[in-house]
Records
---
Amino acid sequence: MKTTREQLLDIYHLLLDAFGPQHWWPGETPFEIALGAILTQNTSWSNVERAIANLKAAGLLDANRLHALDMEQLETLIRPAGYFRVKAKRLRNFTTWLCDRYEGDMQNLEAVATNRLREELLAISGIGPETADSILLYALNRPVFVVDTYTARVMVRHGLIAPEELDYSRLQDLFTSNLEPDVPLFNEFHALLVRAGKDYCKPRPKCEACPLAPLPHRIDVECAD
DNA sequence: GACCAGGCACATC
DNA sequence: GATGTGCATGGT
């Protein structure tokens, strides 16, 4: 019987061999990555790209400038990303925090300890655990494992966690307690799980061609969130 | 036309 | 504490 760590590493290597490096996060600056993390909530990345392109074309990939924009214009620019009224507020909440406490400069976050930063992010309305952890890992290079619905589906299907045990922190703990805190590993692993989820582990999965098909695999388990 | 997408806050019981 | 619902665009 393999250990949990060995099972996780099997999954990681099968996905990496099949898909190759995913080069996450798409985004050029920490601030752009943070905006993307909020905009992609329950939304496909292709829609988020349009919204970010609009912000970029308007020269607004800067916290202080974005913070000064009026809400109606912000809503219009991010409209393609969906939930545009909610997300405009969430972006505003984020820039308020960043501008008021850190002069609108993501570099000023480097001096803050990861746990403290996570708590501050979670205190912002509209930033939940996945968004906070995405910002920590992908924008700020902190060794925090990001989990999402795809991660949940893959882990349930391969029996690493029971469906009734599913909650964010337990799922996250499955990775962090079995793997060394390694930013490049956490980055690639999460991106690969999303890729596998997009291609194969959907609500109605297509498991036959999935790179993980050779592993112990429970087709009878509901591929739930 | 139905389903799905890299969540989260809030209401209600 | 658990469960249900609103939020919205765009691709398949």
---
Amino acid sequence: MGRWEPNARGRLAKAALTLYAEQGFEQTTAAEIARSAGLTERTFFRHFADKREVLFYGSDSVLDLLVQAVAGAPPAAGPIDAVSAALQAVGAVIQETPEPARLRYAVVSVNQELRERELAKLAEFAAAMAAALRDRGVPELAASLAAETGTAVYRVTFARWIAGQAQLDLGDLPELLRESMAELGDVFTDRLLSFPAS
Amino acid sequence: MGRWEPNARGRLAKAALTLYAEQGFEQTTAAEIARSAGLTERTFFRHFADKREVLFYGSDSVLDLLVQAVAGAPPAAGPIDAVSAALQAVGAVIQETPEPARLRYAVVSVNQELRERELAKLAEFAAAMAAALRDRGVPELAASLAAETGTAVYRVTFARWIAGQAQLDLGDLPELLRESMAELGDVFTDRLLSFPAS
DNA sequence: CAGGACGATGTCTGCGGCTGTCATCACATA
DNA sequence: TATGTGATGACAGCCGCAGACATCGTCCTG
């Protein structure tokens, strides 16, 4: 055993999440994770660029999903609609298996370094969505604004969804995302009505 | 000399920015920065939590300015207007001395770790503005959305301002921020007109 | 003006994150 | 059976960062 056990990366990711959740991120050593997965510290760093990255194992596929959803939105849909649809698609996937998402969020949210990395990932998502919007013919500025705004809405809404789960009353994540988007639209609309010239 | 030279923190920040700009962030050692400021590595870490933080020396005052501006917005102003006013206030201050801002941006933008820290600072700004909006009576969700959207607009617009300066054609940062806000409002408005029920 | 009190700095020491380098192992393939 | 290839282990080392303690300047007090 030891060497050549399959799926080293996945084992490391799983062991890391468990240990981070049990004893905290800072209190967990890279060597400890590796040992827990039957591997070496050196091998850990071959699979993950750093100790944080292991918590963002599946983020590439999320990015792909976002880009596909933006590209696949109806031709008549505006940039905000395309972004909203992409966020809802991701929300639906996450909602399928909420437990790992909640555990991961619990670990990330209590640590500064991990929150930073999370923001960086969301920034990657925004950049990718902006590029996908430009491919749809959306002008540069509108594409960037819509994509960045989308991730902002996602941040706020996901946090509310998690908090809501804690009290077992809030439910459908895609619907929450839709509602938040609508709310932000209202915030802008109200402003335009009451301060048209500002 | 050496000990008791005034303004150790400021000297360290200045030396760090210079060295980071000259030879890159990763290639610069904390001990090197300290030596360049006539101090010790240990003293460097007494003044700054880590090697990145030294580049965000004045961020506390920016946060104060944002909060004050949000709180001081006209009572009738909506959340988006208050946030927009706060961003413009910061933009005006930054524009007063654009050189350090540009140099700092050049250093930060080429390094992953520094971009992450920048995003974390902006997230702090958003949280502070959201709190200031709640103090104005804005409901929780609208406050968070407006504040996060504001920092999203800032990110996009500041990058464009810097890029524009490179070609010496774009100018007033507060005005650019106002225009971006208006553009994002249009993106939402257009969407509401063409897809009222979505 | 002597004598602390106190905060800022220097020195020493050590852990952990992360990397380069090379040997070694499992497996596929000829 | 030999050999190539990619994944892993073993070893060494740098640097970020922190704890502990000595030392130095400044200021306050008697």
